[in-house]
Amino acid sequence: QVQLVESGGGSVQPGGSLRLSCEVSGDTANKYCMAWFRQVPGKGREAVAWISNQGVNSDYADSVKDRFTISRDNVKSLLYLQMSSLKPEDTARYYCAALAARSGGCLSKLSSQYSYWGQGTQVTVSS
User: Fold this and answer.
1) Contact, 47 vs 111, CB < 8 A?
2) What digits encode the pLDDT tens for the residues 43-93?
3) What is the pLDDT of residues 31-43, one digit of tens each?
4) Distance between alpha carbon 127 and the CA centroid of its chain, in Å?
5) Is residue 61 within 8 Å of residue 50, measured between CB atoms?
6) CA distances from 117 to 15, 36, 50, 89, 120 (A)
7) Measured between alpha carbons, how far is 84 from 117 in angstroms, rounded to an integer?
8) Are the C-beta atoms of residues 82 and 90 closer than 8 Å to each other?
9) 3-state DSSP call for residue 31?
10) 71 and 52 Cβ atoms separated by less than 8 Å
11) How far is residue 40 CA from its own chain's centroid?
C-alpha cells in the first residue's frame, strides 16, 4: 500500500515561489507514475503536472506551463513541484497522486486513474 505525504505549502505573495514535496512510502517509487492535482472549494480536482515513473516524460496544464516544474527523485522516493511566478488563481489545496506503471505507459492527467492520494497541502497566493 502506497502512502503519500505532501509538504511545502504556505502563503506567498503574487510573483513568489514555492516548492512542494511528496514523500512516497510503502512501495518503490519508480513503480508509479505520479501527478500533482489541485482543488479549490466547490470545484473538481484539476491536474497541474504529471510525470512518468522514471521521470523521463512529463506534461503540464496550460495554466501552469512555463511557471511550474514537476520532477522526482526515485532514490529518495520524493516527488517535487517547483512553482514560480505564482498568481492568486494558483491558490488551492495541492495533492500528489500515484498510478501503478503498466507496459503501455501510465502518464495521465485523469484523476480517475490514480489509485493513491495524499492528504494535500494548502497554497495561498495573496498580497
Assistant:
1) yes
2) 999 999 999 999 999 999 999 999 999 999 999 999 999 999 999 999 999
3) 999 999 999 999 9
4) 24
5) no
6) 28, 10, 14, 23, 8
7) 24
8) no
9) helix
10) no
11) 15
